[in-house]
Every structure is written in structure tokens, then in C-alpha cells.
Design goal:
By secondary structure, the chain is mainly alpha-helical. 80% of the residues lie in helices and 0% in strands.
Length: 410
């Protein structure tokens, strides 16, 4: 084993961690630009909140089951880098489908293709990072990676909002054409993400285990880890897609601003959420290394509950200016996502053996995605069928139950 393969011979900020971070930044630049303008695109096409919830929930579910499959295949055969590259390549393919869509079916298909790519690459990339660093620096390494990931999620939406504003000045035959132009431009960072991972990341390539069986491997995961997954799943059943936050902001601001300007402001609020996330990710990792990942994750879950409660309250407030309350909601959302994305994987690494680490990450992703499918679909449907305040209130109750389950885990 050479120096690049031995995490004990160098600092945590090595070539692989840097390369994975740059790749994630470019990947997020690609698909988060779509996330921030997609609700406005759907509004222009006249597609309701229930459909957006189903689109986002279905995409999350596809990604979740893909994570389980990809993690098991990687642990069994030892090949990870190629699958990660394929996963990143599928994101721009999905973006192109959305750019061509004239209705929700092709938008759904494009989102599924992109999220299938996310599910394919996520557990394997995280396993590569874990095996490239020392155990005592996992919090910092994942905090750095999530920070880089979110840098792309800031730069992409900012440029997307700016491009959308510029595109409005061009002559178009319909209101949806400026959105399509931005979708096409996202293919550039998507291709660069593939190139970055291919050239910079070195996979330690753990020893394959061809005798590994899927069912027995899942059953053999530690009991404490399974209880942890139960807590994550309960929380996730309320942890709706934040595309619904963008749609909420767009709807609340449209009466005073018009739909296009409201979509731009909602996009900027989401950029603010991502900015909070990137600033908080490193301190979150340091706190986790010092005080333990689970206690910090509990605080993050509690902030998630607060986000849902505030979102319900904004819909029952008066007709006054809601922008300040929306700013507060997106700020708290950024804090809790920073904790959740950095530390759920960190807690997993401390509970699962190295030989089944990718499978453990796959299980975590599957539970998260399946739960978020329920949450996003339920919030979208209840928003349309009952009321948004009822939908977000139910989400808050489920997230609170998951937080309590995590507190009880010993």
C-alpha cells in the first residue's frame, strides 16, 4: 500500500478528498440550478404542487433503491470509481430531458435519470472518501466535502437566476423558453464533473468479496445501526424536498411580484439556504469530531422540525410582507441540512464494518430516499387537497418523532 492508499500517512485534506469535493461542487452546480428554477418552470406550464411533490418524491425513491444496489455491488466486486463516473454522467442526460419537456411526464423521466445517477454514485463516493482518511478526521472530511458540494449549489442557482433574468430580455415565443435555455446551459458543469472525478480521485479499491450475498449482508448489519436507520426513516418521512420550499416562496410572493420575479426571489432564498449550509458544514464537522456525531445530529434534526413549523405558520399569517419570515425559514433550513448531510454518513461509518461500508451507506440512502418519497408526495398532495399549513404541520410531527427516536438510541 502506497501513501495515497494509507489514510494514516497523510492529512485528511488529500487528493481524493479534494477531487471528490470539486466533483460534487460541479455536479451540484449542474442539478441544483435546475432545482431552483424548476418550480417556476412548472408554474409557467400550469403544473400544480401535487405533481411537483410526486416528481421529487419519485426521483428520491429511485435514487434510494439505486444506492442500496450500488453499495452492495461495490462491496461484492470491489469496483467503485467506474460506477461513480457513470452516475455523474447521467445527471446532464436527465437535464437535457427536462429542457425538452412540454409536460410533466418527461420532466419526471429526466428527474428520475438524474436521481438514478445520484443514487448510483453517492454511497460509493462516500466509501472512497472514508477509506482515504483516518477515522478521527471523518467529521472534518465530510464537512469539507459537503461544503464543496454546497458551493456548487450556491454558484449554480445564482448563475441560473441571473441567466433567467437575462433570458427574459430576449425575444421568445412563450414564457417557458427562458427556463429551457438555463436547463441547456447546466450540461456544461455536468460534463466537467465527470472529467474531474476521472482525473483526480484515486479509489483505494478494497478487496472484493464475491461470496457476499445480498440478503444475508443486509441481515448481518449491526442491530444498533438498524435502530439508527429506523430513526432516520421516521425523520425522513417528514423531511420533504426543499423544491417545495421554493414553490411555497414562489406562490406566496407572486401576488405582489408576479410569477417570474417571485421565482427569481425564491431562487435567491434557496441560494441563501445553500450559503448557510456551506458556511455551517465545516464547523458542524469540527463539533462532531469533538463532541460526537450523534448529539450534533440530534440538534440538526430539531432544526428540521422548526423549519416545517415555520413553513406552516407562514401560510396562516396575514397578508403582509412575508419576505422576512421566508428569509428566516430558509436560514434555519440551511443549518439543519448542513448537519444532516454531513453527519448521517459520519454516524454510519462509526457503526458499520469497513467490509460492508458501501452497503451500509446504500441502506442509509435507501431509507432516506424511500422516506422522502413518502414525505414529498404526501406534502404535495395534502398541500393541494387540504392546505399547505396542514401538510407542513404533519411533516413537523413526523420529523419530531424521528428526532425523539434518535435521542433514545443508545
Amino acid at each position: 500500500m502506497n501513501e495515497d492508499e494509507n489514510p494514516g500517512t497523510r492529512g485528511w485534506l488529500n487528493r481524493t478528498v479534494l477531487g471528490a469535493g470539486l466533483t460534487s461542487a460541479l455536479g451540484d452546480f449542474c442539478y441544483e440550478t435546475t432545482t431552483v428554477i424548476l418550480p417556476g418552470f412548472l408554474a409557467v406550464l400550469g403544473i400544480p404542487a401535487a405533481v411537483l411533490g410526486l416528481i421529487e418524491g419519485t426521483a428520491d425513491a429511485i435514487a434510494s433503491f439505486t444506492k442500496m444496489f450500488s453499495g452492495y455491488i461495490a462491496d461484492k466486486f470491489g469496483h467503485r470509481k467506474t460506477l461513480v463516473i457513470v452516475g455523474y454522467a447521467l445527471t446532464p442526460v436527465g437535464q437535457a430531458m427536462i429542457a425538452l419537456a412540454v409536460g410533466w411526464p418527461l420532466i419526471l423521466l429526466g428527474r428520475i435519470v438524474s436521481w438514478f445517477g445520484r443514487g448510483l454514485r453517492g454511497p460509493l463516493r462516500d466509501a472512497i472518501i472514508v477509506q482515504a482518511i483516518a477515522p478521527e478526521t471523518r467529521g472534518r472530511a465530510f464537512g469539507f466535502h459537503r461544503a464543496m458540494d454546497t458551493l456548487g449549489a450556491i454558484a449554480g442557482p445564482l448563475l441560473g437566476v441571473a441567466l433567467l433574468g437575462w433570458a427574459q430580455t430576449l425575444p421568445w415565443d412563450s414564457a417557458d423558453e427562458p427556463f429551457r435555455l438555463v436547463f441547456w446551459l447546466t450540461l456544461i458543469p455536468g460534463a466537467l464533473a465527470v472529467l474531474a472525478f476521472l482525473t483526480l480521485v484515486r479509489d483505494p479499491e478494497h478487496t472484493p468479496n464475491p461470496a457476499m450475498k445480498f440478503i444475508s449482508t443486509i441481515k448481518g448489519l449491526p442491530a444498533r445501526f438498524k435502530r439508527y436507520l429506523a430513526a432516520v426513516g421516521i425523520f425522513g418521512m417528514g423531511d420533504f424536498s426543499h423544491a417545495l420550499l421554493i414553490l411555497a416562496a414562489t406562490q406566496l410572493l407572486t401576488p405582489s411580484m408576479g410569477v417570474v420575479q417571485a421565482a427569481q426571489v425564491a431562487g435567491l432564498l434557496y441560494v441563501g439556504r445553500n450559503t448557510v449550509q456551506v458556511v455551517a458544514s465545516w464547523p458542524v464537522g469540527v463539533l462532531a469530531d469533538r463532541f460526537g456525531a450523534r448529539p450534533v445530529l440530534i440538534v440538526g434534526y430539531a432544526l428540521g422540525v422548526l423549519t416545517a413549523i415555520l413553513m406552516a405558520l407562514v401560510f396562516v399569517s396575514g397578508d403582509g410582507d412575508k419576505i422576512l419570515l421566508l428569509v428566516g425559514i430558509f436560514f434555519v433550513a440551511g443549518l439543519y441540512v448542513a448537519v444532516q448531510e454531513a453527519l448521517e454518513a459520519t454516524v454510519t461509518a462509526g457503526m458499520v464494518e469497513e467490509r460492508t461500508l458501501a452497503t451500509g451507506y446504500g441502506a442509509l440512502g435507501t431509507v432516506n430516499g424511500a422516506a422522502k418519497f413518502f414525505s414529498s408526495a404526501a406534502v404535495g398532495i395534502l398541500w393541494t387537497a387540504v392546505s399547505p399549513q396542514f401538510a407542513f404541520g404533519l411533516a413537523a410531527l413526523l420529523m419530531a418523532a424521528g428526532t425523539l427516536a434518535l435521542i433514545r438510541l443508545r
